[in-house]
Amino acid sequence: MIPLSWYLILSAALVCVGVFGVISRRNAIAMLLGVELILNAVNINLLAFWRYKDVSHVTGQVFTIMVITAAAAEVAVGLAIFIAVYRNKRTIAAEDVADLKG
Amino acid sequence: MTISWLYIGIFLVVSLGLPAVAIILAGILAPKKPSLEKSMIYECGVETHGETWVQFKAQYYLIGLVFLIFDIETVFLYPWAVAFDRLGVFAVLEGLLFIGILAGGLVYAWKKGAFEWV
Amino acid sequence: MNFLSDPVTFIGNWLTGLVANLGIPKETASAWVTGVAVGILPLLAMLWVLVLIWYERKVIGRLQDRPGPNRVGPFGLIQPVADMLKIFIKEHILPAGIDRIPYNLAPILAVGGVLGMWIVVPFSATVHGVDINVGALYVIAVGAIGTLGIIFAGYSSNNKYALLAAFRVVAQLISYEIPMVLALLVPVLLARSMGMNSIVQAQPVWFILIAPLAALLFFISSIAEVGRSPFDLAEAESEIVAGFNTEYSGLKFGMFYVGEFLHAFTNSLIFTALFLGGWQGPGAEQFPILGFIYFFLKTVVVHFLGIAIRGSMPRFRIDQVMQLNWKLFTPIALAAFSSAALVEKLATNWADAARIGIHFLVNMIILGVVVLIGGRVFRARGIRLDALAQRNRAAVKFSMEKSHDS
Amino acid sequence: MILDQVIFLITALVIIIAAILVVSVPKMIHAALWLILALAGIAVLFVLLQASFFAVVQVIVYIGAIAVLVIFAVMLTRKAMQDDGPQLNRYSVLAAAVCLMLFVVLTGMLLSWDGASSLPVNPAVHPDTIINLGESLTNPQGYLLPFEVASILLLAALVGAIFIGREHRAGKEEE
Description:
The complex is a heterotetramer.
Chain A: H1 4-24, H2 28-52, H3 59-89
Chain B: H1 2-29, H2 58-82, H3 89-111
Helix pairs in contact in B: 2-3
Chain C: H1 7-20, H2 26-63, H3 79-88, H4 100-115, H5 135-156, H6 160-191, H7 196-201, H8 207-210, H9 212-226, H10 237-240, H11 250-275, H12 288-312, H13 318-346, H14 352-405
């Protein structure tokens, strides 16, 4: 039997890798991939807690559905924005696209 | 349950391994005489011209986008369909509302010309 | 347990007994035997492809008034073996500038993505692969791996036509996955289960009678998923050389075709299990071998239908493929599924015959409405196109006359 | 059972390596391919957690749809970042240090928590959990609201993304 901590440590590691990607990649799409990693780590945690507590309570599963939905929406809109930005500015390096800064 | 998934794991490994082994075997059996002329990219009989990664239409992205949204919504209807016996009429109507919202998205994409391939 | 009535279980039990005699506990022995059987199944499926290739070439040949393969062996039966031997010893040409890992992974994924579906197919009352409770979705998920193989092939080949073809094919595959998933939802709803075996067991009355629209949509989209005529845009030679596999050679090229032939048959298996009652038939419960025969016969009929369509339909254009899917199939699939859910809930307590009748009726009404509206739209479009063509003709004539004058 | 621990460790190793490659390889398309491997590994984890529905959803949604969309987007914008340029910005060393520290802190906190080493309450999940899930999704006492909100969210994403991503043709706008 796998103890709960294994899943939690794995997902902590995944979050850290994802955060690194978001902070340090220049390409905006690569930053989005980092966000995907973070959200997947969240899913691992949610399902692990569902499994290691009372499995008849489906809260963990419903939250996973919500996270997947949010991830999909984020990817769809994010990539569309990058494509539009690329069309207008011919770049998707995050630091070059600072127009929206207040 | 878990043992079934173990079988599926074995099965998937074998199904991926079988073509891999066949290809490796063929690679050993086959003659190997590489030449510059042979390794050139095929392009309707002329030498390849320009960059490989030509620019793609945004249309592909739009199709992928509509697919993604529909895929997610449909997949989440599956548990709902499995639990159908336990649902009341109200819950079924809720599910249909979900589908209705989905259909609204389809109509929007249609009106905005996401499916026109020009 | 009799050998003739259920050979697979008989052999399984015999082998289990043999292993158990070595001093291994009964359950462990059974698990080992099942594991080995599961490992052998892909091999059988791969060998089955040889028969499929011969059969398909023969049928297409007859459809087109040719004899088909007839030189090697009786009725050309050995032809696929000869072809296989030939392709095995052909050189693997590695084109310049390829991306090696995805390039070599692509044919493997293309075949593996199809083979992987076989594990959930219920062949007979006792032999049903693995009965997981998400079988139907598993089929779709494994199909997604095949799509990946095509993207890999197109991207890594360093050939713009291959890439273009891969993008077209992927756009087509992902588009047709939507009506497929929606149509698959109907049998799941009617059986109240995603397990393939439970779906078969829920079909004393075949689901094709209860949900003819869903069956039709599933059938057409599964043809599109295989990428066969009329959806064979992947190999529109006049437009994109040979498609996403242009830069492949030898067995790597052959693997894409193995995948295609196997996919066509696998889809027939799945269609049979979902809509034609699978192994169900008179006496199938008592004599599982009968169930296997019924399943096989039904599958062959469905498979033949697919081949006949392949042999007789012209190719769609890419815009037609896309519009057919999003403007026709997806709305119909949504309507078919919603109506099925509504009828199923409202008619829960009715007699079976009445419930099935209502389901059928509603399906036919939807079909009728679609044909009426669709016919009108297409006729209007045809008139518009005619007018356009006339104007073009007039313009051409005018300009030609002008050039004659001057 | 030792077998599932072995499978877990191998899968975890694959996931972490693939994830690190996702954030570090220079070619965007390779990052997308490594992401696919990481996501497939996570699907295996879901199987180990006996959430088989989510394992197949993971493959269908993430590998079959999101990864394809990412590859499309990479292809559409690929000229923007010539792949040989620097892919990490000037904060990358700092970021790596911060993330490593974050990981150490998180792991330390987890290990000091008593519940971390707990084992599953019941060894085998009853297959009915999918039915429970489906029922609670449209149950007003359950999660009806999140379910419908999710569909609105997806609709909004669809509308927004189509509006942004569509090619505006100069001539067409004036008609």
